[in-house]
Specification:
single chain
């Protein structure tokens, strides 16, 4: 599997929004739909936003080797289904993965040719404001996410590219330029 673009960073940093803007600019990019054991948020659709799974189903898929990466994050489990990537790779479609740092590390080990970008907040305070402002999590969940985020931010040096999401459209332009370069470069991303 090649032509995989990994977008990672802490919860609430704006990965999903940046990926949406990236895909508007580069419409040939596919989006891998992750699996999760968390409950859907209002407006989320199974199979479109995530594959929402029970703990038992997630465990079965782990045992079956169905994930290319999987991790626990803030008390919930997330993973990328191997079949999801194989389907897109078989169609020759470059694919974007929105995953947490644990998963990005696993992808680096299993797909070293994947292009990895870390999305960072301008500050810890800005990240807290974003998590609180989106209004989707209880205070205890926000605190767990912030605790994990602190560890994840310390890992950003592991990633070859870091985009600071301070001004959304500038960050989207920077991300788009990085991905375009990666897709166009000789020998990059399986091209």
């Amino acid at each position: 599997m090649s032509r995989v673009i990994v977008i990672t960073g802490p919860s609430g940093v704006g990965k999903g929004t940046l990926i949406r803007l990236l895909r508007e600019r580069l419409p040939d990019l596919g989006l891998s739909v992750s699996a999760t054991t968390r409950d859907p948020r209002p407006g989320e659709v199974d199979g479109v936003d995530y594959h929402f799974l029970s703990e038992a189903d997630f465990d079965r898929l782990v045992r079956d080797g169905a994930f290319v990466e999987h991790a626990e994050y803030a008390g919930r489990r997330y993973g990328t289904l191997r079949a999801e990537l194989e389907r897109r790779a078989g169609a020759g479609e470059p694919v974007v993965l929105e995953i947490e740092v644990q998963g990005a590390r696993q992808i680096r080990a299993t797909l070293p040719e994947a292009f990895q970008v870390f999305i960072a907040p301008p500050s810890g305070d800005a990240l807290r404001e974003r998590l609180v402002g989106r209004g989707t999590d209880e205070p205890g969940v926000i605190e767990r996410r912030l605790g994990v985020a602190e560890q994840e931010l310390a890992a950003q040096g592991e990633f070859p590219h870091v985009v600071v999401n301070d001004r959304l459209h500038e960050a989207a332009e920077e991300l788009t330029a990085l991905v375009q370069e990666a897709l166009a470069g000789p020998g990059r991303l399986g091209a």
